[in-house]
Amino acid sequence: MIEYVDRLLQGDRRSAAKIITLIENDGADKPEVMRRIYPNTGKAYVLGITGSPGAGKSSLVDEITKQIRAENFKVGIIAVDPTSPFSGGALLGDRIRMQEHALDRGVFIRSMGTRGSLGGLASATKDVVKVLDAYGCDIVIIETVGVGQSELDIMHYADTTLVVLTPGAGDHIQTIKAGIMEIADIFVINKADLGGTEKMITDIEGMLDLSPLLKGWRPPVMATSTLDGKNISNLWETIKKHRRHMIDTGTYREAAEKRLRLEVTEIIQRKLMEIIEKDLLSNGKMSSLTEKLVNREIDPYAAAGDLLKKFLP
Amino acid sequence: MSRRIRVLVAKPGLDGHDRGARVIARALRDAGMEVVYTGLHQTPEQVVEAAIQEDVDVVGLSILSGAHMTLFPRIKQLLAENGADDIMVMGGGTIPEEDVKELKEGGWTEEIFTPGTTIEDIVAWINSNVKVD
């Protein structure tokens, strides 16, 4: 697997694809491969696109990619779709809307299943961004699964986050709820060819009037339509404006530091989880406690304390 | 290490009937596989490019147009040209017995499933032919 790294760095797409699979499968060579890739990362700009199912995220990715390619930047696209909690399988259908770039060697598209993650992305997504970064992508676009109100992982991954909404998706109370409405750097009202767009814009602008500005940035609200390409070039210009703003105010650097600290924390958590699952929960002690739990002889807090004694004397 | 079988379900060529392809995609999903569906009207070049980027184990071609004698060899040939001849190619659709024989003997496909095949058979074939390393 290690030999793929050199070819990846030379821009070989088959090697990129193979390394992504290794990472998704959490293969034995992963730490070594990541160690070699890491010094070649940190160059790509990460654009996150999130929103409810069917809001037009994939079509929007396709349109934005067209804009980016017109400026000759190399693009990596990570399209995440949900993994079944029952079978472990997934239907990855985001490519269907990205036909325009299927044969463009300046675009690399990879579909991922969430494989158990609940935050709208897969746990391997962060490392896949690094692979595409090292592969030479100037911009990496991450499309989340269709989200509800609280799958917010994308805010920790992306430099610029677009929240894609459609007209008629609820009254103004929806716009002042916590969660997804708070993480947008840019709001996109897609399918603006449908009725209700104006009201949606008014509701969001009203919400923004009451929101504190983050380092002087008020998220613009943009109405787009991928049917006729309405406002797409303006959207791309706005994305670039946000990038400029991030860099000028020092937010870009701050966010990068925060992201890396979070990443180390997550790796520690994952490793601890593995230890817990291997040593604590599978040695029969848990099953012997189950009977007591069911019979109300011991409560879940006491049971957990009991199991943890080995680690926290 | 959690290996998952990845399959590209593709509709190459000009026929617009993808109900069968969608049924297969759904069934493979339910069998625990990650299925990338390309949508309709794909050129062989598009199918091969998607197979490489998605690093799939198997490409499943659904062809009802009668163009199978052209499409299978072309896709196999492009996979080989791109150093990806380890990706298997299976197919399904209205393909006459003698053509199935010729395609398999020519090495243009690993397996073809004609109407009447059960979903269980297809899942079993993939499970036994994909090398889990």
Automatic annotation (TrEMBL), chain A:
Molecular function terms, GO-annotated: GTP binding; GTPase activity; kinase activity
Family: Belongs to the SIMIBI class G3E GTPase family. ArgK/MeaB subfamily.
Organism whose genome encodes this protein: Desulfocucumis palustris
InterPro entries: GTPase/Isobutyryl-CoA_mutase, GTPase_ArgK, P-loop_NTPase
UniProt KW keywords: Chaperone, GTP-binding, Hydrolase, Kinase, Nucleotide-binding, Transferase
Protein's name according to its UniProt entry: Periplasmic protein kinase ArgK
UniProtKB/TrEMBL annotation, chain B:
Xref: InterPro entries: Acid_CoA_mut_C, Cobalamin-bd, Cobalamin-bd_sf
Known cofactor(s): adenosylcob(III)alamin
Location of the B12-binding domain: 4-133
Lineage: superkingdom: Bacteria
Keywords from the named record: Cobalamin, Cobalt, Isomerase, Metal-binding
GO MF annotation terms: cobalamin binding; isomerase activity; metal ion binding
Protein name: Methylmalonyl-CoA mutase
Species per Swiss-Prot/TrEMBL record: Desulfocucumis palustris
